[in-house]
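Ticket reopened. Same input as before:
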Amino acid sequence: MEEMVMTDAAFAADAAAADAAMQELRLPMVTMRGIQKSYGGKPVLKDINLRVFAGDVLAILGPSGSGKSTLLRCLCHLESIDDGYIGVLGQTYAGEDDIGGVSYVAGEAERQILGHMGMVFQQFNLFPHMTVFENLMLAPVHVKHIPRDEAEATAIAMLRKVGLEEHRDKYPGQLSGGQQQRVAIARALCMHPDIMLFDEPTSALDPELTGEVLRTMRQLADENMTMLVVTHEMPFAHDVANKIMFMADGVVVESGSPEEFFEHPQQERTKAFLQSRL
Amino acid sequence: MDHLMQMVLLMLEGTEVTLEIFVVTFILVLPLGLFAALGRLSSLRLLNRALELYIWIMRGTPLMLQLLFVYFALPMVGIKLPDIAAALLAFTLNYTAYFAEIFRAGIQAVPKGQYEAAHMLGLSKVQTMWRVVIPQMIRNVLPPMSNETINLVKDTSLIYILAMNDLLRVARTIVQREFDMTPFVVAAVFYLVMTAVLTWGFHRLEAHFGRYAM
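Engineering reply: fixed in the latest deploy. New output:
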């Protein structure tokens, strides 16, 4: 028994040391290498590479059909890659398997890796039959088995963060789109993710409701959350992101800092895209 | 008046048989229909095909024929069931097919985004079905389920061919014996009361499960 405790303590120390080392070295939170994906023979992702470090806010821009949403969805296995490698916090999520194909890890290993990521969808995807509070409590209680009172405290804190405490007992259908999206952000945060993925989080919203969601996202970025954001919101990308990746036709056309990208775009394709967005 | 009273009492006994068939079938059909629906939606090809065939046969032949088959044909191959069991078997097999299709449509109407959100939150397949999909399915299936349930009440009258004394058979017996049409009217009233109770019940359920907007 004593040995077990020792071992656990040693493990914990190791983990803490690893955490510290990761901060030091800024090891990548997300690595995607040589990502290939096609739908029915039509390639949508052609050899995409990206790395995201702790605290990075990566804005993925591009015209519709460029593959940017697909890339994000492949990262969290809502779609599957055909070829390439995906690593999350140093662990392999998808890579070459024993039979020469490419597959994602499964079962508990997958759940553990997904636990590092929170996803915010264009259509919110809240559970309509549950109240706001039940939406926030479901996964912490039934997936992570966190004690109910602890999960409640987190849920309340997250609702406060997105400014919706007074709506906790409403159903999603009773809220505006902007409020629903903020609940969706809070729901993801209740799982304490290390990386937040946003798939066009404001595209389904009326223009006057995008501000409140973008403010919440900006706040998260200020708290050093690692974020991958597929978006059409240029000012947000310019002001909040520290890296921009511009995709078109399944390839990365250009990437760099917001200054480089917006002030000094190198590629014709980028210039044309930026022109069309003015 | 005494005569009418006696008639109503006899018909209440018939109603008991009707209700017995109805209640037992309904209770069996809910879980069986749900499992059949899940089987239809599963990726197991063989199970899928088998259920497709089953549903096709059950929906594609008259319930009366199925009743006769269970009652008269099965004994010929050595399967002799008590009357009530034979009736229950036929009704359950038939209605499971209909309910399976209702549940399948109800499950398919739940948007893909719900599964995606569940995936991202780490819910297992069983948790996703049980906590996310099925609760929303219930709301979707209540109106068609209400229809089929009312049909079931009325279809129980088919067991008169099996010489079981359900409500309709009792009514017919009295009519034939006394040349008085009143029992038919009474039977109609009894059926109407049963379906009215069901309609009311389903309205209550729809109100309960409709408390949230989709």
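Residues 46 and 269 of chain A are 17 Å apart (CA to CA). Chain A has ten helices and eleven strands. Please confirm and we'll close it.
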